[in-house]
């Protein structure tokens, strides 16, 4: 049976439809039609699959987004196909060959655990917890050797940027970037008006696909840009002559995050980062012991900074987390409850002293980069509070450190330097980069 889908591809997407590569990355300006193209590509692949009961998923950052953005396209372009079954409550369409396309939200990506997939579209991966791909979606593609397409607009140097860089440099990837100034899909008058009414950073990000433009509403946009320009996000070695401080954000039902930090003269060396989901405190104690073993002789911990809610008692055991940590050999310094904006300002004051390991702290850097103010869609205004998403954990842990170690006092703290370090590297104010 010949089935005609009422879709005429734009010239910019014909290469994508004709691709032979397994992996794809499309960086496209707003209103370029990337979602329409990818939904139609998925429908065709589902119908033409020679595998039994093919399964394809579309994943948006939030379930509500998946419904608002993609469901109408999926329903409309599938409608002419005889014998389909539409299940709007599950955002799913079943096709007569046994195939299925279903929409998901990455805000509950655990729902996808255990399924198999022949293909997946990840929309706006910059806003999706990277673990959704690595822990759940990628394994779901393995036994069927499924394909994946990542689509979106940039939001700084984050996981999507890493995917794009890989796509344009490796032969088994299809890479497509569509800038509004080059595609001709939007009238020049519209682009001129958009540029006038939007800030330059936002215009460059949304229409010219700039990964270097600041994320809208990002708390540390200026500080991160300065750190990158100063090349302070680089390789930062562990110094065996300095104690390692830790700064924590403890999730009760979601992720917990830990920064590993050494203070050296006027510098703050952020040497490692760890994050896990729904683990007991004993797990994090094991992680701290493993880090000591990795660092080797001379490694030792200094202060451990934890948020005020660590003092809360757990109903199941009747003990506070402080008591549990002490039993595990960790003596916490409990950071007093503080105004979130005061803590953010403490991080800002400290930021120019940070040297951050770009590899070991990659996820933490991404979290800090994407940590941004919540936006009220109804009033079209930013709220005076952070958006709570996966990026909050790393950012909150850093705020805990700044509020506890640096505090609300703008003066630099005194930092003692081990005499062995002074002998080997000179004055405590010298940079380890030039020692």
List the defining traits of the structure above.
435 residues, alpha/beta, Rossmann fold, Nucleotidyltransferase, domain 5, 2 domains, 15 helices
Model description:
There is one protein chain. By secondary structure, the chain is α/β, with parallel strands linked by helices. It has two domains: 11-207, P-loop containing nucleotide triphosphate hydrolases (Rossmann fold); 228-425, Nucleotidyltransferase, domain 5 (2-Layer Sandwich), CATH 3.30.420. The chain is built from 15 helices and 19 strands. The strands form four sheets. The protein has an eight-stranded mixed β-sheet with strand order 3-4-5-2-6-7-1-8, sandwiched between helices. A seven-stranded mixed β-sheet has the order 9-17-12-11-10-13-16. The relative contact order is 0.11. The model is unreliable at 408-412 and 420-432 (pLDDT under 50).
Write the layout of secondary structure elements.
Elements: H1 11-17, E1 23-28, H2 34-48, E2 55-60, H3 63-78, E3 85-87, E4 92-94, E5 100-105, E6 119-123, H4 130-141, E7 147-152, H5 159-167, E8 173-178, H6 180-183, H7 188-197, H8 200-207, H9 221-229, E9 233-234, E10 244-249, E11 255-264, E12 267-277, H10 281-295, E13 301-306, E14 313-314, E15 319-320, H11 321-327, E16 332-334, H12 340-351, E17 354-357, H13 362-370, E18 373-376, E19 381-386, H14 391-406, H15 419-425
Parallel strand pairs: 1-7, 1-8, 2-5, 2-6, 6-7, 9-17, 10-13, 12-17, 13-16
Antiparallel strand pairs: 3-4, 4-5, 10-11, 11-12, 14-15, 18-19
Helix pairs in contact: 2-3, 12-14, 13-14
């Amino acid at each position: 049976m010949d089935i005609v889908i009422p879709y005429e591809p734009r010239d910019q997407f014909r290469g994508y439809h004709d691709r032979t590569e397994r992996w794809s990355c499309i960086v496209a300006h707003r209103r370029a039609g990337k979602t329409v193209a990818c939904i139609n590509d998925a429908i065709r692949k589902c119908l033409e699959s020679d595998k039994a009961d093919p399964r394809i998923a579309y994943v948006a950052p939030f379930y509500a987004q998946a419904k608002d953005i993609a469901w109408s396209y999926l329903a409309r372009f599938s409608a002419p196909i005889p014998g389909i079954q539409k299940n709007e409550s599950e955002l799913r369409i079943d096709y007569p060959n046994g195939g299925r396309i279903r929409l998901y939200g990455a805000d509950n990506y655990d729902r996808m655990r255990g399924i198999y997939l022949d293909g997946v579209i990840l929309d706006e991966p910059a806003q999706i917890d990277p673990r959704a791909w690595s822990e759940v979606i990628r394994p779901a593609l393995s036994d069927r050797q499924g394909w994946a397409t990542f689509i979106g607009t940039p939001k700084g140097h984050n996981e999507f940027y890493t995917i794009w860089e890989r796509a344009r440099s490796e032969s088994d990837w299809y890479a497509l970037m569509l800038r509004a100034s080059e595609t001709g899909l939007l009238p020049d008058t519209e682009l001129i008006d958009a540029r006038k009414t939007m800030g330059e950073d936002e215009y460059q990000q949304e229409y010219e696909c700039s990964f270097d433009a600041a994320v809208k509403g990002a708390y540390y946009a200026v500080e991160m840009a300065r750190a990158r320009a100063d090349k302070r996000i680089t390789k930062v070695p562990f110094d065996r002559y300095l104690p390692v401080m830790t700064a924590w954000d403890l999730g009760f039902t979601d992720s917990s995050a830990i920064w590993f930090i050494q203070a050296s003269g006027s510098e703050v060396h952020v040497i490692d980062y760890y994050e896990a989901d729904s683990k007991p405190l004993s797990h994090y104690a094991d992680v701290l012991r493993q880090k000591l073993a990795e660092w080797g002789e001379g490694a030792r911990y200094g202060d451990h900074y934890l948020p005020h809610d660590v003092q809360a008692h757990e109903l199941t055991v009747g003990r506070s987390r402080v008591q549990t940590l002490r039993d595990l050999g960790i003596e916490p310094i409990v950071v007093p409850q503080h105004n979130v904006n005061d803590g953010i300002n403490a991080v800002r004051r400290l930021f120019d002293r940070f040297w951050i390991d770009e590899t070991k702290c990659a996820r933490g850097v991404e979290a800090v980069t994407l940590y941004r103010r919540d936006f009220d869609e109804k009033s079209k205004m930013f709220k005076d509070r952070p958006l709570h998403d996966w990026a909050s954990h790393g950012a909150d842990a850093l705020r805990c450190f700044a509020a506890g170690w640096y505090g609300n006092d703008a003066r630099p703290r005194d930092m003692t330097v081990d005499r062995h370090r002074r002998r080997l590297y000179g004055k405590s104010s010298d940079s380890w980069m030039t020692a």
